[in-house]
Amino acid sequence: MGLLEDGWDRIFIKDALAVQKLRAVGLDAELMHEAINPDWHCPQGAVRDGSVAVVGNYYGYRQILARRLLDTGVDVALHGFAPPRWGDPRIRAIHTGRYVTRAEKSAVFEGALAGLNSTALSEGDSLNCRAFEICGAGGLQLIEAKPSVASCFEPGEEVLTYASVEDILVWLDRARSDPVWANAVRAAGRRRAHTEHTYAQRLARILEGL
Fold first, then answer.
1. Alpha-carbon distance 57 to 117, whole Å?
2. What residues contact 16, with CB distance under 8 A and at least 6 apart?
């Protein structure tokens, strides 16, 4: 409720749909995506493996997405907060037990075949911090196909978007069979993240607008 007050000079929020809703009631809202710290979210020289890395909280949607990939034989490496007690037993069983941050998180993304990015059902047209961290680390990002993605990265060139589990499997097959292409996508995403999506750039934009 703190956002829904008239005292703010401007509201910066990461969800494009929320911006529309706030503006509809006369609040001065502007879209502001999350970003990277280039000192942490950068390549670490990690050794590449064949896993699909998942980092974050294990809410229901992320669990079922991971389970669908497990059902197809994909090597899914789960990092972050431990799955909840009510979580799927298979998800709980394979969780690495590692809560990764900063450079260690970057090494996970860089070393995986791909970094899988999803958001909870409550999210609208917004991008989470991993949308930028995976790319900053030099990871090959599989990200949900949302309109906001194209405003930050070039789909198919800097990130790989998916609208189904089948889309993910197609991208993974191509990454395995064509590592030169996959590395080019990684490099392009990394350049874009470090060129346009740092916290310093976000702060500068906020200060310019006030």
1. 11
2. 31, 124, 125, 126, 147, 148
The two tokens of residue 144 are 């949900």
Residue type, 51: S
Buried b (16+ CB within 10 A) or exposed e, 111-138: bbbbbbbbbeeebebbbbbbbbbbbbbb
| Burial class, 143, CB count within 10 angstroms (exposed 0-12 / middle 13-18 / buried 19+) | buried
Q: How far apart are CA 28 and CA 206, in angstroms?
A: 13
Q: Are 17 and 124 in contact (CB under 8 A)?
A: yes
Question: Which pLDDT value is given to residue 43?
Answer: 98
**Alpha-carbon gap, residue 22 to 148, rounded angstroms:** 17
For domain 52-196, say whether CATH 3.30.300.30 is its number.
no
Tokens at residue 131, please? 């949308």
Write out pLDDT tens, residues 30-53.
999 999 999 999 999 999 999 999
Q: How far is CA 35 from CA 4, 129, 173, 193, 201, in A?
A: 25, 6, 29, 8, 9
Token duo for residue 178 = 């064509």
